[in-house]
Design a protein that fits this description.
232 residues; single chain; 6 helices
């Protein structure tokens, strides 16, 4: 059984990272570009209720809230949810519900959502396939889950990190990271092939603004983005 200590400790440390003094939010205002891709998949399914987990401080909420009747944003961090709630209120979104949830055990009923968007958390987990199974459990049959894992080409790979295993690191003695090549990303999604079909696996690249107390400089990310369609 995998030791989950790093996952448990990580939740506490991520919550602390959302205590800010200089920035109104941790990740900045631009959404990740692939949230639009996810929304297009969900819209193609006729989605009404979608999940953004982890919602973080709400950077990706606008694309979802403006296209779907109900958006649930969930996160393990109370501090992140507080920032996201302020963003949603300032934008006047009345269709956004923010809740605390663990990606390994969300507490939602089976087939609760017409689409699930999961950004930038699987690469921080020691048991990502377990989390993917939980997200598929709460996805409606025939509908889509979109998520990403960090690629080897990511500009932050190894920067201020201590290697602890094969392409696994601790960043700043606080956060667990795993980086994937395409074959490793495919092996990960193959672990849930009994529950979902792989629709797409592709690289995505984008530029991030500085993050207070985390990476306080502009940097480029590269991830493997995968889309799964839950079996009917």
């Amino acid at each position: 059984m995998t030791d989950l200590n790093l996952d448990v400790i990580g939740k506490v440390r991520w919550n602390d990272s959302y205590v800010l003094t200089e920035q109104p939010n941790l990740w900045g205002d631009p959404p990740v570009p692939f949230v639009t891709t996810a929304a297009d998949y969900f819209a193609g399914d006729g989605a009404q209720t979608v999940l953004d987990l982890p919602v973080g401080d709400g950077r990706n909420l606008p694309e979802l809230a403006e296209r779907f009747s109900t958006v649930v944003g969930a996160d393990s961090s109370d501090n992140a949810i507080g920032i996201a709630a302020g963003r949603a209120a300032a934008a006047g979104y009345r269709n956004v519900l923010l809740l605390k949830a663990d990606v390994y055990a969300t507490g939602f009923a089976d087939a609760s959502f017409d689409g699930v968007f999961c950004c930038d958390v699987l690469g921080h987990l020691q048991e990502p396939a377990r989390a993917i199974r939980e997200l598929l459990r709460i996805t409606r049959p025939g509908h889509h889950l979109m998520a990403n894992v960090f690629a080897l080409e990511d500009s932050t790979r190894g920067v201020d990190m201590v290697p602890i295993g094969d392409e696994t690191y601790l960043f700043d003695d606080r956060f667990y990271f795993r980086f994937y090549d395409k074959s490793a990303a495919k092996e990960l999604v193959d672990e849930v092939e009994d529950a979902a079909d792989l629709v797409a696996l592709e690289p995505v690249t984008w530029t991030e603004p500085p993050h207070e107390g985390y990476r306080e400089y502009e940097h480029e990310h590269v991830s493997w983005l995968f889309t799964l369609r839950k079996h009917t």
